[in-house]
Design brief:
The complex is a heterodimer of chains A (192) and B (359). Chain A is of the alpha+beta class and 192 residues long. In chain A, 26% of the residues lie in helices and 12% in strands. Chain A has a domain at 66-176: Alpha-Beta Plaits. Chain A is built from 6 helices and 5 strands, in the order ααβαββαββαα. In chain A, the strands form 2 sheets. A 3-stranded antiparallel beta sheet of chain A has the order 2-3-5. A two-stranded antiparallel sheet of chain A has the order 1-4. Chain B is mostly helical and 359 residues long. Chain B has one domain (3-275, 305-354). Chain B has helices at 3-38, 54-64, 75-91, 119-140, 144-175, 180-186, 197-200, 202-215, 227-230, 240-265, 274-283, 289-319, 327-354; strands at 97-104, 107-112. In chain B, strands 1-2 form a two-stranded antiparallel ribbon. The longest helix of chain B is centred in the first third of the chain and has 36 residues, at 3-38. The chains are: A alpha+beta (192), B mainly alpha (359). Chain A: It is a peripheral membrane protein.
């Protein structure tokens, strides 16, 4: 029969040589290969990452847990305009706006602020559109934190208590800070 | 035998029992670490330093699992199967001479559970009984896969016991005794390693080790429990510690097979230059002959365990290297290759003894 394609390959079934039929040379060959791997695993560093102790580095553009930023004076930047909630494709963000009282100027930057601001981390798809939409540079997705697993569904609704960044600057996330030109170049080269 | 000597001997028996269990326990750990290293992985490292407490964690897990009895299973035999496997596995280590003897004053302690003049036959008898544990467990499970595994185990063990026995006969022709202690002592002539039986019986050893793999149901001959075809074979239906006993029995069998091979072919508790070392201890170090002999005995004990661990490592090394044989290949290898080879080995040995080349 003529072959349909030109890829047909003629197989010849050669009788096995004595060495092949005796199994043993092939067995020793196999044993030496596994022994090489044994010593490689014992001496070289394994590729395994022992998770709780070691962690894989995040990408610099990783979009993780949200943060509500403060400005240089430590005031909340969010003005509760609702653009993030509108931009959110998963409808994960809700907020209640309130008016700043007299004497609260050191707490909130704008005259209007978010009394409550909640993100449902089970709905959130971490697309970063809220970050894009924010005109006040208030909401960011951190590159170094993730929403950890929890036992109850309620616990995934993050309120302001867990979203607003702490006052002490040491604990603040790196994201959301204006990059210096060198940092920007470094990031670009890492991305390329 | 005096009463204190009897007490010491009892201690030796208990120690043999404990060591067998301990080694089997840590074989589970070693198996997983060696498998991991051969496959460029890490292996268990969570429980304790380097995961050394892993066997403990496994034991706790096995003890707390549900005791499951399949519907229609013969309950009594279902429990009896793993018990029998475990008991026979433990019994066979009793006649292994782990060391020569220790002497304290008038008390002489032989580092051997029981010395009987048919030690090798005893080991063979007990190992043959071991297949009953698998057979009964597989049959009592009321499961077709278990039964298939059990039948495979029975036929495989019978086939390979023949070749194993024939390989052994060549050793017995040279030694003229069935006592494992005597066979060990005969290999200690002048303490030289080339008096070990491996130098005289390389072919016999090859046949013996292949059969040992089959007898202990280890890869490449683990057909009774092959996961892919028989979903675990004879222990498919077993859970909890009954499952644990089967796994344990397998590791104890590996330990005993390694010990028997070390004794029969690798000089047992003898090690090179032992008499020179003893004489040196006496002449240069000024030790008494008894003390020097005790030191040699302890070193020999360590040496035997080094040989045993080497064989156990080899068992595991092979397991994670070779794929499983097909059933017909297994039978063909056993009946048409190993048994004729073993008979040829007997004739060869007979000829060499007749012409005085080896003795």
């Amino acid at each position: 029969m003529e072959s349909l394609s030109k890829r047909a390959k003629v197989l010849t079934k050669k009788p096995m040589t004595l060495a092949e039929r005796a199994y043993l040379p092939a067995i020793f060959q196999g044993l030496s290969i596994t022994m090489q791997h044994f010593f490689r695993a014992a001496t070289k560093k394994q590729v395994t990452i022992r998770y709780p102790e070691e962690t894989r580095p995040f990408s610099p553009v990783f979009r993780g847990l949200h943060v509500l930023k403060r400005d240089e004076a430590g005031r909340e930047r969010c003005t509760a305009c609702g653009l993030c909630a509108v931009a959110c494709p998963a409808e994960a963000i809700t907020m209640v706006a309130g008016e700043r009282k007299k004497g609260e100027e050191n707490l909130y930057r704008e005259e209007k602020y978010a009394v409550s601001y909640e993100i449902n981390m089970l709905r959130c798809i971490f697309c970063g559109l809220c970050e894009e939409a924010c005109p006040k540079a208030a909401v960011y997705l951190q590159a170094d934190k993730m929403a950890p697993p929890r036992f109850e569904r309620d616990e995934f609704i993050y309120g302001k208590d867990r979203l607003v960044e702490p006052v002490t600057p040491d604990n603040r996330s790196k994201r959301g800070i204006q990059l210096t030109p060198e940092q920007a170049d470094k990031l670009r080269s890492q991305l390329a | 035998m005096t009463l204190p000597a009897l007490g010491w001997q009892g201690l030796v028996v208990l120690a043999t029992f404990g060591i067998s269990l301990l080694i089997a326990t840590y074989c589970t750990y070693a198996e997983r670490v060696i498998a991991a290293f051969l496959q460029d992985r890490v292996g268990p490292d969570r429980a304790g330093p380097f995961g050394l407490l892993q066997p403990l964690a496994d034991a706790v897990k096995l003890f707390t699992k549900e005791e499951f009895f399949p519907a229609g299973a013969n309950r009594a035999l279902f429990v009896f199967g793993p018990c029998l496997a475990m008991v026979t596995a433990l019994m066979s280590s009793a006649v292994i001479p782990f060391g020569n003897f220790l002497q304290f004053g008038d008390t002489i302690i032989h580092l051997q559970g029981i010395e009987i003049n048919v030690g090798m036959l005893y080991v063979f008898g007990i190992v043959s009984l071991g297949v009953y544990g698998i057979m009964i467990g597989g049959w009592a499970s009321n499961n077709k896969f278990s039964l298939l595994g059990a039948i495979r185990a029975a036929s495989q063990n019978i086939s390979y016991e023949l070749a194993m026995g024939l390989a052994l006969i060549a050793v017995l022709m040279m030694s003229g005794t069935l006592s494992l202690r005597e066979i060990t002592l005969q290999q200690s002539v002048a303490g030289e390693w080339h008096f070990w039986n491996i130098a005289k019986q390389p072919l016999g050893f090859l046949i013996f080790i292949v059969c040992a793999f089959a007898e202990t149901n280890r890869t490449p001959f683990d057909l009774p429990e092959c996961e892919t075809e028989l979903i675990g074979g004879y222990h498919t239906e077993y859970s909890s510690m009954k499952m644990g006993l089967y796994l344990f029995a397998e590791y104890i069998n590996v330990f005993v097979a390694s010990a028997v091979m070390s004794v029969l072919y690798f000089g047992g508790f003898n090690f090179p230059f032992q008499y020179e070392l003893r004489d040196w201890l006496v002449s240069s170090r000024g030790l008494e002959l008894v003390t020097a002999q005790n030191i040699i005995t302890i070193l020999g004990l360590v040496g035997l365990f080094a040989k045993i661990f080497g064989f156990i490592f080899f068992f595991m090394w092979v397991r994670w290297t070779l794929p499983r044989f097909r059933y017909d290949q297994l039978m063909r290898l056993g009946w048409t290759i190993l048994i004729p080879l073993a008979i040829f080995n007997i004739m060869l040995t007979g000829g060499l003894i007749t012409f005085g080349i080896i003795k």
